[in-house]
Amino acid sequence: MSPRRYYEDVRVEGHLIDSQIVSHIMDDVVELDGEFETLEFVVGRTNQDPSHAVIRVIGSDADHLDRLMTAVQFHGAIPVDPEDAAYTPAPADGVFPEGFYSTTNMDTFVRIAGEWIRTLGPEMDLGIKVDPEARTAVNVPMNDVRAGELFVVGHKGLRVVPIERPREKAAFEFMNSAVSSEKPKAQIVTEVARMLRRVKAEGKAAIAVVGPAVVHTGAAGHLARLFEMGYLNVLFGGNAVATHDVEWALFGTSLGMRLDDGTIVPGGHEHHLRAINRIRAAGGFEKAVADGVLTRGLMHTLVTTGSPYILAGSIRDDGPMPGVITDVLEAQAAMRTHCRDAGACLMFSTMLHSIATGNMLPASVTTVCVDINPAVVTKLADRGSFQTVGVVTDVGLFLEMLANELGKPQQ
């Protein structure tokens, strides 16, 4: 009598060769000590025609097969004979049920009563709350879980739509293949500008995630130009970027150093505290602008253009500035609202805010990370999707080139 085989047949469709989807599936199965058999493989004849494959995934036992199926599901594979999703009530507020499905940042569908339902709010590391009667599914962070709500458990009845690499590889897509300081910056700037023009034309918002280095390098004015032209629409940052921008606006310094000639001002180390105090005394940024206390700078531009900004605090903050959100969960919720509807996201010289934002963005949002430190760019690229473009360069030079490129009249 032959030993029992534990297997499941899955199908996958799309640009399987160009996006290396089938290769990724096979690699994951082998890495997890599983086996596979290709039962069917039909390659699309044109650039528009999708390819189709049926693959048998084989495990050593039921638990092993379950791990294999969880891995291949990430690449868009679904069982040939799909089942409805399983769901279990949350045992307590802020607690997912044991075995809950942890989401990716890609579009995901849940099968309820034989119907595939798209989950709302694609984001990684959440749970999927379902309402079988209303036929709805929504991604929910752990802190928002309420006892008794139903959450998907296991991998059955789920379909993930992977990000595909199109057959026509534009320069922008080619440039994100590796992190390097030697890539042609002018070409990248041109492609980023083209992307921002497209996002603006589509009526979507572009998020800027900004660190204080943007002020230190003297690039805040170029960033402000992008907001004034409408190519950037929302700013994420911390207390520091707002503080040093206001310090420059009031005293001409950043961390006590004059930005026009690089000299250290005697007593300049106090300027950031005096800047915070001045805005607090005015009653906030909006009041400071209205009363003529704040007449220039990035924060002035955000107020006058009506651009939303989310300033998330940290334990090391002085002050902080009015409007800085010191509750991290409240800050997450405020950022998440903008992330889910964004068309693009540009990250400038801030590791922690960039990684946090990257974890909230759907995989469909094109993300550009600009930093002089290759490690920051690599961490964003390691999110495992094609949408992240890493640029290792001085943020000041990049922003000046980008603002100049977008400021050119269109032919």
Give the SSE map.
Layout (H helix, E strand, L loop, with lengths): L5 E9 L6 H11 L3 E8 L8 E9 L2 H12 L4 E2 L6 E4 L18 E5 L2 E4 L8 E5 L4 E5 L9 E4 L4 E3 L10 H4 L10 H17 L3 E6 L2 H4 L3 H9 L5 E4 L1 H13 L1 E2 L2 E2 L12 H12 L2 H6 L7 H8 L3 E3 L16 H12 L2 E7 L2 H10 L5 E6 L2 H8 L6 E5 L2 H13 L4
Parallel strand pairs: 12-13, 12-17, 13-16, 17-18, 18-19
Antiparallel strand pairs: 1-3, 1-4, 2-3, 5-10, 6-7, 6-11, 8-9, 8-10, 14-15
The level-1 CATH class of the largest domain? Alpha Beta
| Helicity, as a percent range | 25-40%
The assigned structural class equals alpha/beta
**Overall pLDDT:** 89
Label the overall shape: elongated
* Sequence of strands across the biggest β-sheet: 16-13-12-17-18-19
Query: Structurally, how many domains make up the residues?
Result: 3
Strand content: 15-25%
